[in-house]
Input
Amino acid sequence: MTVTTEERAGQSDAGQQEPRAETRPTDRWTTKRWLSTGAAVALALLLVLGVAGGWALNRASGLSATVTDRDTPALIAAVRLEAALTDQETGVRGYGLTGQTTFLAPYRAGVDSQRAYTDQVRSLVGGNKTAIANLDAVTERAKAWQQLIALPVSAAPPGAPVALAAQRADEGKRAFDSVRSATRTLQQTLASHRDHTRHELSVAGQLRDRLFLLIAAVILALTVAVFVGLRRGVTRPLEQLSADARMVADGSFEHPVGLTGPADLRRLAADVELMRGRLAHELAFTDTARQQLAEQATELRRSNEELEQFAYVASHDLQEPLRKVASFCQLLQRRYADQLDDRAGQYIGYAVDGANRMQTLINDLLSFSRVGRLHTETSAVDLEALFTRTADALSIAIEESGTELSHDPLPEVTGDPTQLGVLMQNLLSNAVKFRSPERPAQVKVTAGYQDDGMWHFAVTDNGIGINKEFAEQVFVIFQRLHTRETYPGNGIGLALCKKIVEFHGGAIAVDTDHRPGTRVTFTLPGPAPVPVPVAAEKSQE
Output
């Protein structure tokens, strides 16, 4: 059913007046009072049971947390500690027999893992003095074995079997057996502590279950006792209020909300009726705003069409006279070169150069205006491949300038491939162009993902740099810090970069604290990097 703005406004006024016309209930036994009295009696009965149940639940939860968060992880870490020590022994023994450095990889990984799991066990056992003593014994025996065998063998030169490994084989075996014995003692201590905690948890769980069963029985009895009163005094009025609210939610904004039930429920219904009237008013306002938005969208489409028409004129009609000026000036210079003096040739050169620069400015303006209008389809862009293509395109300038170009592993981001290519090329070409004559040019691209959901990039060079007072000016179109004779260009590159980055939802700026040279930072949206699992890293090693 269609409701006009005037009807909604009228319904809103009526909805706001109807609740005020109702008389407030004068009976003293409101729903709140009945419920307060019943709740007081029930709470008095449940208070003792609740305190006892809370104590039992807290104890069971504490014991469960001890088992899952401390005892079990500590035992797992102790087992992994033993595995790390075994990896060390295997790697050292293999290196001692063959002299091949590949056997040192598990040894070194085992050393790091030993340190990590030792710290983990120590932090988890807490005040368990027996476990701490056992852990200290493992550490001391492992250190003795490492000093006896591991460190001297691993320090031996590669390429041939290590004689020391054969000489101390029996002694090293006894030392490592002592390490194994200490780790097993530690594991038995931790397992015994976990079993004891599990037994206490079972006893606490049984007590908790019995208390909660008793509480449930009491609650069930109280529920049956008050069910009839709640049905008559609360449930039915609420069902009527819910039905009226659903009718309003389905679009029947003219349907009034009935005021029934106790005094407090009638006040609630009056508030809902008042809200219905305000909703009708807001919907009328929304219709007006939607109509204005549609008109603005139509105007925006018309403006974009005019802008596209201007771009067409600029790319064809405006450039054609410039080409003719340049062509005829050059033709005039060639045909009448013997009749013109040097000054006339210089003037013709100025005219040709001016026409060419005007064409370049027009093309740059077109590129600047097309950002966000053309090539607006976004997709996944591999910046690693994009960097490679850009470096190939700039290879001549990089080679001639002797620039050292490097980069971090670059991610895959979401955006327009063409515009991101322009962004990368402008930033790299600027870094190469504005190099310092006092030192070899170095350019590096870095990337990192942060908690704001954006990839943060930086293009860093050791060139002539940008003063702090010009950090914002360089992003303004046609703003140049150097003469055209010193550094060629039109001063649109960084302005175009800023427009591209902002179109993609990011930000770009100059790091004024970087010295020497320039660091341009910018952000782009993209998926977060996928963390490599620890197991996968070990398998790769």
